[in-house]
Amino acid sequence: MADAAVKEKPASAPETEQELTDGFHLIIDALKLNGVKTIYGVPGIPITDFGRMAQASGIRVLSFRHEQNAGYAASIAGFLTKQPGICLTVSAPGFLNGLTALAHATTNCFPMILISGSSEREIVDLQQGDYEEMDQLAIAKPLCKAAYRVLHAADIGIGIARAIRAAVSGRPGGVYLDLPAKLFGQVMPAEAGRKSLVKVIDAAPAQIPAPEAVKRAIDVLKSAKRPLIILGKGAAYAQADDAIRTLVEKTGIPFLPMSMAKGLLPDTHPQCAGAARSTVLKDSDTVMLIGARLNWLLSHGKGKAWGEAPKKFIQVDIEPKEMDSNVEIAAPVVGDIGSCVKALIDAMGSAPPKAPADWTAAVSAKREENVAKMAPRLMNNNVPMDYHGALGVLRSIVKERPDAILVNEGANALDLTRGIIDMYQPRKRIDVGTWGVMGVGMGYAIGAAIETAKPVLAIEGDSAFGFSGMEIETICRYRLPVCVVIFNNDGIYRGTDVNQGGGTDPATTVFVKGARYDKMIEAFGGVGVNATSPDELKRAVNAAMDSGKPTLINAVIDPGAGSESGRIGNLNPQSKLKKK
Ligand SMILES: Cc1ncc(C[n+]2csc(CCOP(=O)(O)OP(=O)(O)O)c2C)c(N)n1
Ligand SMILES: [Mg+2]
Fold this sequence. Notes:
The protein is of the alpha/beta class. The protein contains 22 helices and 19 strands. The protein has a 6-stranded parallel β-sheet, sandwiched between helices. The protein has a 6-stranded parallel β-sheet with strand order 15-14-16-17-19-18, with helices on both faces. It has a 5-stranded parallel β-sheet with strand order 10-9-11-12-13, with helices on both faces. Helix 1 (about 25-35) runs parallel beside helix 7 (about 155-170) and helix 16 crosses helix 17. The termini are far apart. The relative contact order is 0.09. The chain binds thiamine diphosphate and magnesium ion.
């Protein structure tokens, strides 16, 4: 460390010159000691010089146009690598811009650290009106897994170690680290500084499940007539891909991947029940959740979607509090996913519980039926395009390029893409996650391109894209192999809504008709294409994926093609009173 440590000789210094270091260098050294290679952020007081120095030290520092997008990039870096993604912001407004992403990381269980510079504590605490004054630590606390502030240079090592461990151990999440402006310039002897740094050992220790819990789970599975495995993004995060595959194949149990678990086993795997989702939720009698929570995305494990028949749930999760969150869990298995799945396989030995053949045959038949129903719609060459025609070609492109990362957000643009595009490899589909949030698109695309060095295909609703659209400049600036396809249907859900008040303002859900998003990227030297047919779309995406050039394709979609809120229109509140 201390490759650029300051040498100073104060007037009163003794004859022997003492090597000094400062907050700037200690933070950089602490991050590098713990393997941090990339920082996503936006510069400004008090972290501008810090960013420069970090870049000079060999850390890759990516500057964004808005902190929220930098934060989303950091959050997905955490998901993809199991190391905390780092987001760096300025005080108050920059911090708040990054905070949405920190809360998102926490909700989605992605390890991330939001490092924010902050203003002078003495002034902030007396509320004397400092530049960008805000008690950031207090605000961050309820929105993340842990929040820390470092006041003394000698505590930087410990502060960063705590942040890293808190982010990745147990159930991963977002951590806030508050670094007041004064800290950066604090000076201390270099040798003492070196000694104060902490390398985090075994940051995410294995958590082995209790053998009784494993046996209980296997007993429940053995009594099942219609078992189902649901794989969540926690299972994808775990990087226990081989073990999970072994468990699924050994038991022959149909599996249902949640959105970001698609590809953990290929969607074309004979046991994949993705295309028979409603049937397996209703008809199964025993459900093993692996890194999936019974939240709204699974209708809380009860109600119409789950049918009348009684169900038994087995849940594999690292967080004990997750058990019984919505319904009774008959067999909780608490531990990290990799250790739990391995323990289950070992305990099954040579006599694993097997899914009964009549059940697996029924699931396969339903799946084949649904796939066959969908097939002709995907081959249409309509102009203007509908979602199915456009997705039919994108589906083949992903099949031919299974290692590309697919970013996806929107309403119809999300739900139909998820349903239609098969994934073949783990952690290749990244999307709106637990909140169904709009705005992750370009941040995710950048984070994924940087962390994986794979080509990225982002399929975006025109509304969804708007939340982070300015980052196409960032994509062009860093020359990232990102191809953005905007499903442009002139608005949110549909572009056909009318203002029921009759004025000249457009309806609340519609945008400028015939907008040409492709022209935006041309302003930054990227490739823009306006695609009006599936053939044009296919050609443009293939060219972009071959060249690796930043590309934005405006895919013109029939404004009437979508439906309200995509697949989740039922969540819109209804009143018994008639709409006026
Ligand atoms: C941060 C945030 N703000 C607002 C919403 C509400 N919302 C859900 S989907 C959506 C946009 C849907 O339109 P689009 O992306 O164009 O997809 P389409 O259905 O038209 O294909 C919006 C604004 C949200 N989910 N997240
Ligand atoms: Mg739209």
